[in-house]
Write a structure and sequence with these properties.
- The structure is a single chain.
- It is built from 5 helices and 8 strands; from the N terminus they run βααβαββαββαββ.
- It is globular, with a radius of gyration of 20 Å.
- It binds adenosine-5'-diphosphate and magnesium ion.
- Magnesium ion binds next to α4.
Length: about 250
């Protein structure tokens, strides 16, 4: 019943694949530099607007129209700051960040409480293999990946969606998968979803950076992300990471 499988960055000819990877990594490196410069430049004035809108809010009664206008300004600033921090996360060269022994059990269990705000009537199933599955990685980054995938699953599946997280291991690989019974991804969009700023969400809802950042983090961990999706039935994102070796 599954009609589309995609391996991101996967192509038949090895040479073509290498070539594409080269272009891609150069593009990403350039974009990363650009992003971090712009992000830093914008962050300061935005911080100023945010601070002053918060100060002004204290000056007017909360019933005043001006108060709710200031509220909008504050919300817009916070959203801008959020986008910037996503960009900075991505562009930061974390290749020599401390990688440690990380238990996938913790990656998942510590992330779920952070999602309480966006989970509504959703059913969340978490299946974690009995034995401790460990990888060499960065806990915060891996949590960010799981957080992004679950957030997307929530958005895709409406208030009564069902989301299943599986953590398992097999020959040399640690696997985390996040599966939903949501709207699914049309075949022609599967190759686009990892691109920076690609989003199908309304203005103000999506940044289009979630999967882009996820893919960057997973690649940096020596792993990869596969997607399985069927329109109208749901989507599964599967992460493969090299298992920790003593
Ligand atoms: P954003 O969530 O800000 O739109 P992402 O990079 O996280 O950006 O996702 C890009 C796009 O991929 C989404 O706008 C959506 O179209 C699609 N997508 C991602 N995850 C799912 C999912 N679980 N189900 C359906 N579509 C998805
Ligand atoms: Mg997202």
């Amino acid at each position: 019943s599954i009609n589309s499988v995609i391996q991101y960055n996967n192509d038949k000819s090895a040479e073509f694949k290498l070539y594409k990877q080269l272009i891609q990594s150069e593009k990403l490196a350039a974009l990363g530099m650009l992003a971090s410069n712009i992000a830093h430049e914008i962050n300061n004035p935005l911080g100023g607007v945010l601070a002053y809108s918060q100060i002004l809010k204290k000056e007017v009664p909360s019933t005043d129209q001006i108060y709710s206008d200031l509220d909008e300004i504050e919300k817009a600033c916070l959203r801008g700051k959020n986008i910037i921090s996503n960009l900075l996360d991505f562009s930061r060269d974390s290749s020599n960040d401390g990688k440690q022994l990380v238990s996938l059990d913790r990656v998942v269990k510590d992330t779920i409480p952070l999602l309480n705000i966006c989970l509504k009537g959703h059913k969340l199933n978490v299946n974690i293999e009995e034995k401790d599955i460990k990888v060499n990685g960065n806990l915060g980054e891996l949590q960010q990946v799981v957080f992004n995938l679950i957030t997307n699953a929530v958005h895709a599946s409406g208030d009564r969606g069902e989301i299943t997280i599986n953590v398992s291991s097999n020959d040399g690989n640690a696997n985390i998968s996040v599966k939903d019974n949501g709207v699914g991804i049309p075949h022609e969009l599967l190759s686009k979803i990892f691109e920076p700023f690609f989003t199908t969400k309304d203005k103000g809802k999506g940044t289009g950076l979630g999967l882009f950042v996820c893919n960057g983090i997973i690649q940096e961990h020596g792993g990869r992300i596969n997607v399985l999706s069927k329109v109208g039935e749901g989507t599964e994102f599967m992460i493969e990471l090299p298992l920790w070796r003593e």
